[in-house]
Every structure is written in structure tokens, then in C-alpha cells.
Design goal:
By secondary structure, the protein is mainly α. The two termini are 20 Å apart. The chain has 18 helices and no strands. Helix 6 packs antiparallel against helix 17 and helix 11 crosses helix 17. It is 78% helix and 0% strand.
Length: 396
């Protein structure tokens, strides 16, 4: 007999989750991470310091944190599907604003809004993807990974577009990149608009079921460190590649390798994500992520940077998948939105302090290598902390 906590089967769960993954592809893969590709040109053209450049990702993370804090309320008010769709539309509008102005305040506002919208998309989309995946329990971890691999498509697409647009149009063409990415996002929005997505009614109307934080404080701390550590790599690595002499092709290849490797996530980590043993899955995956982040410390060799991008990328989104798997294993279905929101809040706090702090370190010490050292150290510490998180007794 089927458990009453499980949703009814979906006819084509993999297809639905792949369409749903277009939302974080736009909000995160493009809305957040493409900034790293245009950051060097924006910094040169607009005369920013590294601290100012880092602030643009800090304000984005502030918006993400704010979105995570109210995501459960938005879901309860509008439902899972509408929260995802309207959050994606807001992300696209923010991309368009980035293309329209070089004003620091206006750009900060755009980065704030896309951060807020991306959080609503990620929490609502993650809960909806978990619902769809759980309708096929034997394939749930694989199906859920499809959603979290989605931003990799945004990273890949932006990596194939941005460096060559900048090369073709020359210095100061960062705004053309933002227009190109806006048009791409509009095209991606079309299938998301017309897909027959339907949220779990019980989940939609119980989005504020309690989530106990105290039993998972260690786990939340580890996820906080991941948020603080990964963002330095994803913010400044393109600048690091460029400073090492890498042109448009090298930058595109590096960024695209991160996106391509994310597509392997469902297959590489499916068994690890099935570990129902507290923080073990996060420890393993985050440890691999830390190795990828640490490799550039040893030089600018193209092979070394390529391996770094592949190793970092294959583990990057799997860390996020592991937190949703943890929530699924340890909390009832009615608590999933609140649980995913709590994880997202911890992550959001980490990535809020990360970029501006790392930018300040770089300005003070004069080298991006120090930023990468800090990034790798935070990821290692997060992996160690996660190992101490035990399995919870399922709440009711």
C-alpha cells in the first residue's frame, strides 16, 4: 500500500523536473553566476575595486537570504508553481536592468532583486522537485539531482556566450552580454510557462509546518561554510584565469567545464545521495568540492585549471542536492518547504559575507591567490563539520 505522505505518481517525472530546472538555470546559473564572466570588464569599465566588485555578489546574496527567509510564506500564499514562475520572471527583469545601466546603485538593486527571486525559485522549485521525485521513490535521488544540475546549464550557456561577446565587441561591452543573457532567459521561460506542473496540495497549504533547527545546527553550520567558501571561487575565478593570461577561449572553456561537469552530478553521486546517515553525504561531496577549489592555488596551468573546474563543478550542485536529500530522509513531507528554506537561509548567510570579505582580502594583499586559499579552507572545514551530524529520528 502506498504511503499517504507520498504524492500520486507523475506521468513523466524526469521531463517535468528538467523543465522545472530551467527556473534555477535562469535565477542562479545565469542570474547569479554569469556575473563572474562580466566582472573583469565591468570592474575595468566602471572603475571598481575588488571590494566593490565583491559587493555586487554580497548584495545578491543579501537578496537571496531575504528570499529564503520569506520563501515559506510566499509558497503558502501563492503555491509552489506560481512562486517558481513569478520568481523566474523577476529574475529575467533584473537581468534586463543590468543591461540598461552602469549606475552602481541601480546595478546593486538589480543584483538584490535577482537574489531574492532566485531564492524563491530555489526553495519552491526544490520542494516541488522533491514532491515529483518522491512519487517514484526508487528513483527519487536521481530525479532530484536533475533539478539541482539545472544551474549547470546556465553556467554552460553563459560560458559559451559571454567571453566571445566581450571579445567581439571589445572593452566596455559587458552590457551587451547582459542583453544576450536576458534574451536567452526569455527563451528558456517559454517551456516553464506552458508546462503542466502541479504542486502537492497538502504541501502548498502546510508550508509553515515547524522545522526544528537545534538538532541540525552542526549541519547548518557546515552549509554556511559551503556558502561562504564556494562564492569566492565562483566570483573571482574568471578574473584569476584572465590575470594568468587566459583569453576568451580559456575563460569560456573553464566556465563551460564547470557547467558540463554539473550534468554528471545525478550519475556520479546517486549512490552517495542515498546515504541515509546524517551528514555523511555532505562530508564526501563537500570534500571533493574543496579539492577542486584548492587546485588553482598551485598555478595557472591550463590542465590544472581544467581539472579544477571539472572537480569543483561535479561536486558543487551535489552539495545542494545532499541537503534536500537530508531533509527528505529526516522530516515528513509537510516540513520539506520549511526544511529546505532553513538550509537555504544558512547557505544565504554564508554567501552574503563571503564575497565582500574575500574582495577585501584581495584588495589588502594584492593577489587573488589568497582569496582561493580562504575559499578552500572554508570548504574543508565545512566537510569536517558535516561528518558530526547524525541521523535524526523522523518528526511527525
Amino acid at each position: 500500500m502506498r504511503s499517504p505522505d507520498l504524492p500520486a505518481p507523475y506521468a513523466h517525472p524526469a521531463r517535468l523536473i528538467l523543465i522545472l530546472s530551467l527556473a534555477p538555470t535562469i535565477g542562479l546559473g545565469i542570474g547569479r553566476f554569469a556575473y563572474a564572466l562580466v566582472l573583469p570588464d565591468m570592474r575595468d569599465s566602471l572603475h571598481w575595486s575588488y571590494s566593490a566588485a565583491g559587493f555586487m555578489n554580497t548584495i545578491n546574496a543579501v537578496g537571496y537570504l531575504a528570499g529564503a527567509l520569506v520563501a515559506s510564506r510566499l509558497i503558502k500564499r501563492f503555491g509552489l508553481v506560481e512562486s517558481v514562475r513569478w520568481g523566474t520572471i523577476a529574475s529575467i527583469l533584473s537581468l534586463a536592468l543590468c543591461a540598461m545601466t552602469g549606475n552602481f546603485i541601480a546595478l546593486s538593486f538589480a543584483r538584490l532583486v535577482v537574489g531574492f527571486a532566485a531564492a524563491a525559485v530555489f526553495v519552491g522549485g526544490g520542494a516541488l522537485a522533491a514532491t515529483i521525485a518522491q512519487s517514484r521513490p526508487e528513483r527519487a535521488n536521481f530525479l532530484l539531482s536533475l533539478f539541482y544540475a539545472g544551474p549547470g546549464m546556465g553556467i554552460l550557456a553563459s560560458g559559451l556566450i559571454a567571453p566571445f561577446v566581450l571579445q567581439a565587441f571589445g572593452a566596455g561591452s559587458w552590457w551587451i552580454v547582459w542583453w544576450a543573457l536576458t534574451l536567452l532567459s526569455v527563451a528558456m521561460m517559454i517551456p516553464l510557462t506552458f508546462a503542466s506542473l502541479s504542486g502537492n496540495a497538502a504541501m502548498d497549504h502546510t508550508a509553515r509546518v515547524g522545522f526544528s533547527v537545534r538538532p541540525v545546527l552542526i549541519y547548518l553550520a557546515a552549509y554556511f561554510l559551503f556558502g561562504a567558501g564556494y562564492i569566492a571561487y565562483m566570483t573571482f575565478m574568471i578574473a584569476y584565469v584572465r590575470d594568468g593570461g587566459g583569453g576568451a577561449a580559456a575563460q569560456s572553456l573553464f566556465w563551460s567545464l564547470i557547467g558540463i561537469s554539473a550534468f554528471a552530478t545525478p550519475w556520479v553521486w546517486r549512490r552517495v545521495l542515498a546515504f541515509d546517515r546524517g551528514g555523511l553525504a555532505m562530508t564526501i561531496i563537500l570534500g571533493v568540492n574543496a579539492i577542486g577549489a584548492a587546485l588553482p592555488i598551485f598555478g595557472h596551468s591550463p590542465l590544472l585549471l581544467a581539472v579544477s573546474a571539472l572537480v569543483f563543478g561535479v561536486a558543487f550542485f551535489a552539495v545542494v542536492s545532499s541537503t534536500t536529500a537530508f531533509v527528505r530522509f529526516n522530516y515528513p513531507v509537510q516540513s520539506w518547504p520549511a526544511g529546505i528554506a532553513a538550509m537555504t537561509i544558512a547557505f544565504g548567510i554564508g554567501q552574503t559575507v563571503g564575497p565582500i570579505a574575500v574582495g577585501a582580502v584581495t584588495d589588502a594583499l594584492g593577489s587573488l591567490s589568497y582569496a582561493l586559499n580562504v575559499s578552500a579552507a572554508l570548504l574543508v572545514l565545512g566537510a569536517i563539520l558535516a561528518a558530526f551530524q547524525g541521523k535524526l529520528k523522523m518528526e511527525s
